[in-house]
Amino acid sequence: MILTQELYTLAARHEPYRELCARWMRRSRTLLEQHFDAATARQLDALIEGLALHRALDDTPPDRALTREAVARITTTA
Asked: How confident is the model over 36-45, as pLDDT tens digits?
């Protein structure tokens, strides 16, 4: 997790690392798009990144129930 955050910091400051992160995010979304439409894949990708960060740094990290509910809200049509 620390290396990921350091990479994001480098990406914010240096174009070559920004391009690396952009490719990484595109690859992740491409894999998710095998199962979901593009908009949903983008939302899930952001959820995964955010939950990983919260899990690593939050005093009370999200549990599996919260994760399941968040995924259901994104992937289930109203």
From this structure: 999 999 999 9
- How many structural domains is the chain composed of? 1
* CATH for 22: 1.10.357.10
Q: From CA 63, how far away is CA 54, in angstroms rounded? A: 10
pTM of the shown model = 0.81
The Cα–Cα gap between 38 and 19 comes to 20
Helix orientation angle between 15-32 and 2-13, rounded to the nearest 10 degrees: 120
- Residue 32: which region, alpha, beta or left (left: phi > 0; alpha: psi -120 to 50)? alpha
* Model confidence pLDDT, tens digit, residues 50-78: 999 898 889 998 899 999 999 999 999 75
Q: Which residues contact 17 (CB under 8 A, 6 or more apart)?
A: 7, 10, 11
